[in-house]
Amino acid sequence: MPACESYYPAEPKQPVIKTKTIPGPECNKELEKLDKVFDSRPAYFVADYEKSLGNYIVDVDGNTYLDLYAQIASIALGYNNPELIKAAQSPTMIRALVDRPALGNFPSKEITPLLNDLLKFAPKGQDHVWSGLSGADANELAFKAAFIYYRFKQRNGKDFTAEELESVMDNSPPGSPELSVLSFKRAFHGRLFASGSVTCSKPIHKLDVPAFRWPHAEFPSYKYPLDDEANSKVNKEEDDRCLKIAEDLIKTWPIKVAALIIEPIQSEGGDNHASKYFLQSLRTLTLKYNIVYIIDEVQTGVGATGKFWCHEYADIQPPVDLVTFSKKFQTAGYFFHDPAFIPSKPYRQFNTWCGDSARILIANTIGGEIVKNDLLEQCSRVGNYLFKKLENLQAKNPTLFQNLRGKGRGTFIAWDLPTGEIRDLLLKKLRLNGCNVGGCAVTAVRLRPTLTFEEKHADIFIEALTKSIAEL
């Protein structure tokens, strides 16, 4: 029996839209109340999670949508998953929630087996983990680990000098060294301070917030489809152009580059793919210049592309230094393999909770269900099925399906519309036709369904998309 039918025998058969507008009247009432205590402006609608099930999300007006956005790509197994409910009701979860351990100082007896279980799902070559609270937190923690590691190597493992200990209290070198992280234009790594400094997708993400003066290299802009031989030469030239820019920045940036961070597919920035050649060549650069290589798998990780970790398609050798994660794992942090990334003294990488054992338990349940139900194979199969149907629509509507991409990457699929206005209108039409879909960058539609999304769901989406295009 398919995983979706096993999990959700009562899942809706199709979307049901009861209101003429979205948000509907009940949603608008709730949003008006919410707006008095919270910023409700980004809200699509107000959800009723008790009634949501499987691949369908329900709002307070009773509208039932097929959900291809899945809480901004963060729901792996669907709504009200019975296995996650069992985990939530377990004694381990009760202890984790009621007596939330400060894991650094007072680790629970459960945390070692929980972390060992989490490491079963680590990317190839990684055998250590540090846990965090969110995707942005994971990246900030990774930067801190990278800087500490970089300086440890610079001082050859020796202890801190008196000058370092004194100057750091004034936020001055050498205790507070002048170091930077190289990232890429159109990247999104979070909205905090260091993560905001490496984010370069939309101005609104970082306006008015002080930033580090860190460099942004060019991320390749490919010709699609990627498997078209006619595009291979120009795409290789684009890779080499961007690699030269990255190396020139490493060599000339006035603040020493200590780390490099990249998404294997830039997600918020427009679903921009990095080739195997590009990702491997960056590894060569980071080794040449003794730079820490960080892969951000916050959105691409945990099965979304048909592999547990997207960068494993590139088989980067030797393995990257740090891999950050969050979203579909429902927990956050980074994986690593070099013990030298563990600071030489305690309390350097530290906070009250050092992550959250409750969320790690959920992550382990998600990982176990993915393996047990072979959901990576399903994601790949359904993705191929959906992509072919989108190619057929593209042939009929070429101006509305520009740069269709994500072939061979599970259901991690996107395409561009001619303008942002047309894209936004299409997303509204899709909701009115029963499908909740998200966008990215200015003109792109991105598909981010759960891993339990099946061919029958793809058919429903294609029908709604066809109708929505006709209504544009």
Describe the fold and architecture.
With 472 residues, the chain is α/β, with parallel strands linked by helices. The protein folds into two domains: 3-80 and 374-471, Aspartate Aminotransferase, domain 1; 101-355, Aspartate Aminotransferase, domain 2 (3-Layer(aba) Sandwich). It is 38% helix and 13% strand. It has 15 helices and 16 strands. It has helices at residues 3-7, 25-34, 70-73, 82-88, 91-98, 111-119, 135-154, 162-167, 193-198, 229-252, 276-288, 357-372, 375-396, 420-432, 455-471; strands spanning 56-58, 64-67, 128-132, 179-184, 216-217, 256-262, 265-266, 272-273, 292-296, 322-325, 332-336, 402-405, 413-416, 435-436, 438-440, 444-447. The strands form four sheets. It has a seven-stranded mixed β-sheet, sandwiched between helices. It has a four-stranded antiparallel β-sheet with strand order 12-13-16-15, with helices on one face. The protein starts with a helix and ends with a helix. GO terms for molecular function: 4-aminobutyrate:2-oxoglutarate transaminase activity; pyridoxal phosphate binding. Pfam families: Aminotran_3. It catalyses: 4-aminobutanoate + 2-oxoglutarate = succinate semialdehyde + L-glutamate. Its EC number is 2.6.1.19.
